[in-house]
Amino acid sequence: MKLFLKLAGLLFAIVLIFLIGFYSGKSNRSYTVDSMAEKLKHNLMNPISDAAQISGRKLVLLENPEIIGRIMEGGSFGNDDFSVAAAQNMFSKNESAIEDIIDKTSIQQVSANVWLIRMPIVNCTLIETAKGLVLIDTGMKPAGPALLKAIRSISKKPIHTIIYTHGHVDHCYGTWALMEAGENPQIIAQSNIKARFERYVQLRGSIAKYMSQPSEQLPHNLTEIVLPTRYFDNELSLEIGGEEIVLKHFNGETDDQLFVWLPAQRILLAADYYQGFLPNAGNGKRVQRYVDDWIVALKTMAALKPDIMLPSHGEKIKGSEIIQKDLRILTEALEYIFNKTINGLNAGLRKDQIFQSIELPEHLKNYPLLKEQYVTAKDISKMIIRQYTGWWDDIPSHWSPASIEAQAKQIVALSGGMDKLILFIRKLTNQDLALAAHFTDWAYFAEPQNSDVQQLVLDIYKRRIMSDESVTQEMLVYLDHMAAVREQMK
User: Is the residue at 319 inside a domain?
Assistant: First the structure.
């Protein structure tokens, strides 16, 4: 218990240090985090770093607290507040996550009967009608109590309808709290969502790994998920208590995604088709995204000429001209990536040559809406390639390759031994960090138990996380690898 309390206090101190630095400006943040990190390392790490029960991930963050700030720059997914507890326990009723989300939830009134409920990472929308409340999305699992509290601060009416914009955990897992409170709404979603939920059960270990979540928190069966009571395919028009609500489905971030249109108020609930930065359309740790259909969805939304747009992540956007411009720019960017990728495939280029050539034109590159924060334009190209081709990457030896371990050992031997390879990598680091990371991987797969190699992995991938060229999902891959290596070192 004493160790637990000490760790909890230390983690709180690290996050507090980051937040103080964040709100005092970027340069101050860097100075504050770096200087305090050194004090934390020297004064606090030595007594606890031998504790076998501390996870490798926590040790990496405790020893390198500046990493926390770097990852959090994009980890909030467009929302102002970030919750470490919630991000690490998306599928559970973790008490710390529940309390943190309650503390960080805010409400913005959008119109006389529409409210945007803003929580860490994701937004939900509430519509009040004569027949009761209509709720768009319910957040991740620990968000349920915060959502209920927010709803009841707005209206005491029963929840008539819940609409899931898609089946991702941050959009539909908070429903349990509403049901336990006695609500009995109809729940509407696109037909493909059930197969998504079934996959969450079937691949729970894999999904936990790639989402950096505790595997025991993933659903064991469908009874642990509040399923829809009504499904539709392409379009559904509802009339609830005098409010017309139109649901339109297009493949995008998922194959069950939809957006919501309130024609009388000209309010568009854009779900995850719009994210405020270059969208999560090329995530290497997630199932297929559909960039071509995403483009059609954006064009369809723009044609509605909304006056207000409410994304599921980030601030509301007001003004028809602003919304039109944003949707047009985003469409142009995705079309550019899509067309260049398809042209590369048709020209017979090697797949890595295609995505490596992807770079947005100058007039798009610096547009704030297209910031490469979570994934890159190259990542989106990779996703398009995967959608339209097989698993082979066009390199002949990769069709039936030798094991990675066998390749790695030969590369070490050709380098003249591990000591010489490590020296080469450390010199290369300042010249070409990405290339140094390749050789670091070879060193690690050849001798994963070598303490010098393990330290090399930690050093190289910390630098990759801290690099301005890295984006959120990339950083999390590097952090997971560092955590696995640090676990070996205990």
Answer: no
Domain of residue 222, residue span: 89-272
What lies within 8 Å, CB to CB, of 146 at 6+ separation is 98, 101, 102, 105, 119, 139, 174
**Alpha carbons 484 and 462: distance in angstroms, whole number:** 13
Neighbours of 179 (CB within 10 A): 15
How far is Cα 480 from Cα 159, in angstroms, rounded to an integer? Answer: 40
Rg (CA), the chain: 24
Instruction: Look at the block and give the residue holding tokens 């218990």.
Output: 1
Q: Is residue 287 part of a domain?
A: no
* 389-427 pLDDT, tens digit each: 999 999 999 999 999 999 999 999 999 999 999 999 999
Residues 71 and 101 in one domain: no
55 and 107 in a single domain? The answer is no
Question: In the chain, how many H helices and how many E strands?
Answer: 22, 13
Q: Is the pLDDT of residue 14 over 90?
A: no
Q: What value does the mean pLDDT take over residues 338-348? A: 98
Beta strands in 174-217 (DSSP E): 186-190
Residues 134, 231 within the same domain: yes
Q: Are 359 and 365 in contact (CB under 8 A)?
A: yes
Same domain? For 32 and 157 the reply is no
pTM assigned to the model: 0.87
20, 55, 77 - which closes a domain? 77
Mark whether 139 and 231 lie in a shared domain. Answer: yes
φ, ψ of residue 111 to 5 degrees: the values are -150, -170
Question: Is the Cβ–Cβ distance between 374 and 473 less than 8 Å?
Answer: yes
Cβ atoms within 10 Å, residue 406: 12
Separation CA 68–CA 298 (nearest Å) = 34
**DSSP characters for 378-394?**
HHHHHHHHHHHS-S--S
Report how far residue 141's alpha carbon sits from residue 97's, in angstroms, rounded to the nearest whole number.
9
Residue 121 sits in the same domain as residue 252 = yes
Coil, strand or helix: which one is 117?
strand
Look up the CATH number of the domain holding residue 175. Answer: 3.60.15.10
Distance, CA of 340 to chain centre: 25
